[in-house]
């Protein structure tokens, strides 16, 4: 009897981009209306098959098989080869460690900030500084149309993040189903339903390819004109790219509270090339008087560290930090939050100690 292992679905032809195509911007005579065509590539799967997993075991075929103790040597060898192939798929292509990494990456993407970058369509090396060109092109772009494009980009970003979560759930369910089949001690149903197992493996491979393609930001296409008719002899050709910035998070080890002030530190996973502006917020939790309600504020900061003074002792404060708003910001669903409690005031009166010797200091503040 011929043997065969699980098939892998080759999906090299799929090209799932982060955003659905909407065509080029800046073409003379292009339609002025707004249209949006959401397409999710790499997801042409039988969803009913994935969401409602079929029974791998054809009961009628299983009943017609011989007793498991009476398998022919060739059938037993085929059974062992297929079990080995399935186990290899579950320990490499769909291993628990790999799925945990994908879950962590998805959670990180949900905390990122998303921006639109405007770049020239064709930029020859050495012509001009590409960091200066977008500033000049912003003067030619219709502000109202650009704001509408940002809303379209935000909607598509939300859809992509939801799809990533759904694809991960399909991978988790698929691994649980195949793992249960692998743990079955009866070889008859395993051999009888191997055709369904192969199709399930191909489906899960397609889901994995779709997931990996969606985690990579890419080009954002448009069908309308962003550049208004300014009477220029030649309207510049531009392209839009979606860029992702890692979330800003507090350094929980270095951020500390003292008696009436706090020292805060934060960082980004990937350090930016240029300095960034941040927005720091603080608020007293559970204020007891009208005056205590004023213990809050918004502070613009141009560094990754800041000290807030004149706080109340022995009280809890909440702090949040994020990047300052930018004209090109598309979507920012998350900001980090930290709660710290200031130290209580030292008790009044002399510190008890041994006669003739001063007692130890009550509080030691960090020197700056």
Q: What does it look like?
A:
This is Fibronectin type III domain-containing protein 11. The chain has about 375 residues and is of the alpha+beta class. Among the domains are: about 75-215, no CATH class; about 245-340, Immunoglobulin-like. The chain has 8 helices and 12 strands. It has helices at about 45-50, 60-65, 75-90, 95-110, 135-140, 145-180, 185-190, 195-215, and strands spanning about 115-120, 220, 240-245, 250, 255, 260-270, 280-285, 295-300, 305-310, 315-325, 330, 335-340. The strands form 3 sheets. The chain has a 4-stranded antiparallel sheet. Strands 4, 5, 6 and 9 form a 4-stranded antiparallel sheet that branches. Strands 8-7-10-12 form a 4-stranded antiparallel sheet, with no helix packed on it. Helix 4 (about 95-110) packs antiparallel against helix 6 (about 145-180) and helix 6 (about 145-180) packs antiparallel against helix 8 (about 195-215).
Strand order of the largest sheet: 2-3-1-11
Give the count of helical stretches.
8
Major β-sheet annotation = 4 strands, antiparallel
| Helix-strand pattern | HHHHEHHHHEEEEEEEEEEE
Unreliable parts: 1-69, 124-133, 356-368
Distance between the termini: 78 Å
Percent helix: 25-40%
Category from helices, strands and their pairing: alpha+beta
Rounded Rg: 30 Å
- Average pLDDT, all residues: 75
Strand segment tally: 12
Query: What is the 3D form?
Result: flat
Strand content: 15-25%
């Amino acid at each position: 009897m011929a043997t065969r292992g699980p098939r892998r679905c080759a999906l090299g032809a799929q090209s799932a981009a982060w955003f659905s195509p909407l065509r080029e911007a800046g073409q003379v005579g292009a339609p002025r209306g707004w249209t949006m065509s959401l397409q999710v590539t790499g997801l042409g799967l039988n969803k009913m098959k994935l969401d409602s997993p079929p029974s791998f075991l054809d009961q009628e075929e299983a009943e017609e098989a011989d007793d498991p103790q009476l398998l022919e040597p060739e059938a037993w060898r085929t059974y062992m080869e297929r079990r080995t192939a399935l186990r290899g798929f579950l320990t490499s292509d769909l291993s628990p460690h790999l799925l945990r990494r994908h879950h962590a990456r998805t959670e990180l993407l949900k905390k990122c900030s998303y921006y639109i970058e405007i770049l020239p369509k064709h930029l020859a090396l050495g012509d001009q500084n590409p960091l200066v060109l977008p500033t000049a092109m912003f003067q030619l772009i219709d502000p109202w149309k650009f704001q509408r494009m940002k809303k379209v980009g935000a909607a598509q970003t939300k859809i992509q993040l939801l799809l990533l979560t759904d694809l991960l759930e399909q991978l988790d369910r698929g691994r649980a189903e195949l793992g249960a089949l692998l743990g079955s001690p009866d070889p008859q149903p395993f051999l009888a339903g191997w055709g369904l197992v192969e199709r399930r493996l191909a489906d899960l491979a397609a889901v994995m390819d779709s997931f990996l393609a969606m985690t990579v930001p890419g080009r954002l296409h448009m069908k309308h004109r962003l550049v208004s008719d300014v009477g220029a002899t030649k309207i510049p050709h531009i392209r839009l790219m979606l860029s992702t910035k890692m979330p800003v998070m507090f350094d929980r080890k270095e951020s500390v509270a003292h008696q009436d002030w706090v020292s805060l530190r934060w960082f980004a996973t990937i350090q930016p090339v240029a300095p960034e502006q941040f927005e720091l917020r603080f608020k007293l939790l559970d204020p007891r008087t009208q005056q205590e309600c004023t213990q809050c504020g918004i502070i613009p900061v141009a560094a990754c560290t800041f000290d807030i003074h004149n706080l109340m002792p022995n009280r809890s404060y909440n702090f949040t930090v994020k990047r300052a708003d930018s004209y090109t910001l598309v979507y920012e669903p998350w900001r980090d939050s930290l709660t710290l409690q200031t130290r209580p005031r030292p008790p009044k009166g002399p510190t008890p100690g041994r006669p003739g010797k001063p007692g130890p200091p009550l509080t030691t503040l960090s020197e700056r």
